[in-house]
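Now for a sample.
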Amino acid sequence: MWFQEKKPGQQTSPRFLRRARRIGASKTQGTRRGFYLFPNLVTSGSLLLGFYAITKSFQGDFLKASWAIFAATFLDGLDGKIARLTNSASPFGAQYDSLSDLVTFGVAPGLIIFNFALAHSVSPRLGWTVAFLYVVCGALRLARYNIRPTSSKRYFEGFPIPAAANVMIFSVIFSVHMGLVRDDRTISSIPNLILLLTLFVAGLMVSTFPYYGFKDVDMFRRHKFGTLVFFVGLLVFIFQEPETMLYLLIMAYAISGPIVWYVTRQSGTPEPPAAPPAPAPEAAPAP
């Protein structure tokens, strides 16, 4: 029945109204305790750099826009570590980080690469279609991670969107560094090559190739002396010519996924497993 019998002196309300109040109270119960400040401020900083990169791309300042995305990569790696170290991980932080990643590493690089090269490719319409495809694949990559975080402590499933963004922005940085830009436009067949690269990166994001996640690398514990020598040598290697060396490193990481997948299939080694679907991640923010 919709209504209960009313006793003398007792005010009653319809049963469906009481049920709606209980549902509303249960939905708002988790937000009464507030939100963690520090990790969400770091995430906001990454989002700020993404918005700054978008504005600079429309002004034609592609170098500043690209370096802003590169700086946002470090903030994106910090917010998850801070949340874990301070025991402040939350579903809100995970969802906020995912939305920030879509803007900073999806929309912003898509607009940068479109304004820099794809608009001057073989077909401007094809250019913005490919740029939009990059953004869509980045969104699908984040959504898949949110409902199916990988159970492997070492590998991601598919190319992480921050790494994909760095492939895009270092294509811009490398082209400018090598003098492949004249009068604010890329010359020769560079726009068409970047168009193909954008398609390739978009496909990697929605693939199931295993990518090393560096989750088991702890910079705050003791390591062997050879490990220290390796990282010092890596820094020296990068500082020789940062624009070129960083581009080579990120491209090597991009093709590492298909290589690892092929080697594991040929050797018969089982691929890193993926976790079963889950309602929502409550641990570290999405990559």
